Input
Amino acid sequence: MKPAKTLPAIDLADRAAALALTPVSRETAARLDRFVELLLARQAVMNLMAPSTIPTLWIRHVADSLQLLPLIGPEARTFVDLGSGGGFPGLVLACALADREGATFHLVEATQKKAALLRDVAADLGLPVTVHAERIEDFNRKKPVVPDITTARALAPLPVLLGYVYPLLTKTGRALLAKGQDVEAELTQASKYWRITADLVPSVTSPEGRIVVVRGLERAR
Output
């Protein structure tokens, strides 16, 4: 077994700032604290996120995920998170919506060690989560669920990402895709392959960031 790495310390002010940006209930905050504790324990022996982001983990990763909550709506019950990695945004949203009646989260992650982390955190916190340790293409071929909300963060350029989303998007479903400063260029490139009905929502955690809210998607002819 590899020796545990010494990790940078989390800035406690960062946690307070993150929860001020994206307020949650006391119960959700407690779940998120435990999630972060478990995440850092695993980060010490495997690479789940860039070490340079650890001091500002709460804003950079947790609040960046929580900001999707106002875009979800009260009717959504079935969620699919593509390329979940260390749990952003899928596990964070599951922590926040764990008490929503009928809510289920399906996290798709092909890397087995990361999938094991997702399962362990979900079990520890009693979250309504199913982890699918497989490639997105294989998950989409099986299509085990029809999601109300599909999410992805830092996964792939939009032309590719929309191909992952397309099999899951229904007439009433939405995809919430977190993107950075190149989103306009990515949308222009994606329009060569897709007819997209989407809104761009500014990120509350990054002045360059945008959330692409996809409401309709068709292949370009």
